[in-house]
Amino acid sequence: MKYILALLVIVAGCSVHHTKSPANLQYELSFEKTNNIHVKLTYKPVEMGSTLFTYGEPRFGGQPDIIRGLTDLKVSDGSRIMFNDISREITVFYKDSLPVTIEYNIIDTHTKEQGLRGELFRPIIMNDYVYCHGINLFLNPVLRNNKLNVSQSVEWKSLPPFKLFQSFDPQNNGSRISIGRPADFMYNLITGAEDMVTDEVDIEGNRNYLVMRIIKNKDLNRKAVAEYFKQYYTGISRFWNEPSPEPYCLILQPFLSIDHNIGGMGLGSGFAGKYSYKADTILTPERIFVLSHEIGHHWIGGKIDSDINDQWFGEGFNDYFTYYTLLMTGLMTPDQFERTFNTVLESHYTARIKSLPNDSIWPNYWKMGDYNKLPYRRGSIFAFFLDNQIRKLSNGGKNIRDLMLSIKNFCINKGVGYQLSINDFSQLASEFIPADTVKAEIDRYIVKGEPIIFSGEMLVDAFSVSMKDDVPILRITDKGKFESLFSTGN
Ligand SMILES: [Zn+2]
Q1: How far is the CA of 318 from the centre of ligand 1 (A)?
Q2: Distance of CA 294 from the midpoint of ligand 1 (Å)
Q3: How far does residue 393's CA lie from ligand 1's centre (Å)?
Q4: Rounded to an integer, what is the distance from CA 132 to the centroid of its chain?
Q5: What are the chain's domains?
Q6: Which of 77, 271, 462, 477 is least surrounded by CB atoms within 10 angstroms?
Q7: At 462, is the secondary structure helix, strand, or coil?
Q8: CA 316 to centroid of ligand 1, rounded, Å
C-alpha cells in the first residue's frame, strides 16, 4: 500500500538563521542555463593540513552511482585535492589556515529508467524545475574531531528564473543567506518551479508551509490539501500533547513521468512527496493515509527514534497511530478502519513469511514484496493488540496513547540520537501491563514473530473477532463506543 523509500527523519528542526558572520563552509550557488548548479565553496580550514569530505549517500534511496552527479571538481591554487569516486571521498590538502576555494557542478543524472528512485533521490535540474536534496548538493565534512562546532552558509549568486523553496529556511526564497550547521542542510530540499505555489498554513499561531505543484484541478486540490493539512496536523499535535506544534513543511509535486500513487521522504521538519502525474484528485483515502503516516514520522522516527531492525515499531506502530489520529480527526470513518484493518490482517495472516523472526526482516527488506510490508503489518496488529490490553486492564482509564507519551518523554530525556530499544519499550509498557506479561508478548509476537491468535476476550467490547481459515476477521460491534476510543485529544 505504501512505497516510501529509505525514509530519513532528522530532528534538526529549523535552526537555520541569517546572521552575517562568515561561516566555516560558505556556499555560493549559481543556477546555470546548461541544466546544472555551479557550486563555489569557500572553506576556512577547521583542522590542520587536510579535511575529508564525502559527497552523496548511496543508502539515500539506493543510489550507488550518485557520485556521477558531481563534475568539474577543482580547488584553488596552493591547495590540492584527492578525489575517490568509489568511496565518494574528497580530501582537500592545504598548507596554512587561509580559505580554500572548492568548485564543482551538480548535474541532472536522473533518467526515466531509474523510475521512482531517480525522481525522488537524484538532483533534477531543468529549465523550469529544480529538485535537489542537500545531501546531493553540499559536501559533508568528516572531521577528525567531531566535537568541533562548524558553521555553514548558503547563498544564491544566481537564482533560477522561477520561485524557489528551501526547506531548511522556509521563509527564504534564495534572496538571503542562510546559516546553520552542515547537518541542518543535508536532509532538506531545495525545490522550485514556475508553477509552484506556497501556502502558509497557520496552526495554533504557528506558520507552516504547504508547497505544491498541481497539474490538474488546481484550485480544488490546493484548497483540499490545505484543509487536510490543517485538520490533521492540529490533531496529531494534540495527540502528542504538543499544543504548539513546530513549523512543518509539506511539499507535494507530481512525478514527471511516473504513474505511481505516492512516494517520498521525511525532511528535517517536513515531508517531500511526489504523486502520480495522472492524478485528478490528490487526496484519495490512500494518499491521505500515506501523507498522514509520513507526518507521523515527525514523532515516531523523529522524536522517538529506534533501530532499523525495529521497524515493527518505527513503521508498524506509526501505522497504528496513523489510524488512531485519522479516526480522531474525522479523516477516517469507522467503516474505512474496519475495511482497511481487515485487509492488513488478511495480508499478514495469509503471507508465507508471516512468522519470520524480527531479526531476519531487515536483511531481506529490499527483496520487497511481503518482506518490506511485514514490519508495518506485524507492528500495527501488535499495537492494536496492546491498545486493547491496556484499555481492558485499566477499565478504559488508559490506552496506548499514554504509553506513547511516556515513551516520548523517555526519549526526550535521553537526548537527540538516542534509539529506543526493545528493552526500553517493554520496561515502559510495564507501567501499563504486568512486566512479565508484556515481556513474554514482545518475545513471542515480535522477536519470534508468531502471529497473534485473536479472541473476543482480548478486545474491548466495541469489537468482535472471528477466525476464518486462520485469518482473524474484525468487526466493529458498537460504532459509538468505537468512536469514543479514538476521541482522545486535549
Ligand atoms: Zn514510514
Answers
A1: 7
A2: 6
A3: 30
A4: 16
A5: 25-192 (2.60.40.3650), 307-490 (1.10.390)
A6: 77
A7: coil
A8: 8
